[in-house]
Amino acid sequence: MKAVRFAWLPLAALAVGALASVAQAQDEQEARMRAALASPERSAENKARDEARKPIETIKFVGIKTGDTVVDVFAAGGWFTEVLSAAVGPKGKVYSQNPAFMTQRGGDEFKKREDAMVKRLGNVEPIHGDLPDGIAGKADAAITALNFHDMHNRSEEAGVQFLKGIYDSLKPGGVLGLIDHVGIAGQNNAEFHRVEPDAAKAALKKVGFVIEAESDILKNPADDHKKGVRDPSIRYHTDQFLIRARKPK
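User: That's the sequence. What structure does it adopt?
Assistant: Structure tokens below.
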């Protein structure tokens, strides 16, 4: 009778051990990220944006792990590329993607900054072109921050195609973190560089993503959504939504 009563104990010990391993991995990732974000090699401009953009909380919400292969979609200056580089660690990989027009417009200065970042971080590979160029089905995760609105506001189809490129870059079961400026109905969101969260969710579902969760960590109640995102009163402090969506296995 006692043998039956206590047969669950080894399984319980295994479960506790697994949870402890996950917690330890998360602690190690957070410590690595804090050190990287505080690095003297990182620009003061990028550091100044950390408080509002909450990089560690965002990585935890999306579920990016040490050793993952991830994509910074439309990376621009590479703020998120740096964050992702620290999040996945030296055994992980970051694809820092920009469309060809972005790199062409930036010219030699853009290439110089990008080359310096790649050399400094050590686990980053640039992509100059549209997704999924060269990485179809390779990524565990992707983040696109403050980019979807421009595609969607060009046309709904352009927004869907933008997300389809990300979808095709992910492995089955891969995850996307989508961040953007909150827009509201009845105003010119294209002029303000905003988008309604429901529009983003509809596009994600149309592509095939399953929406798992939404987070309010990037919300700012002081933003009334009636100004352009570059207005000095709210620039870098807009109200933003964060969605976690997954490609089905």
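The longest strand covers residues 170-181.
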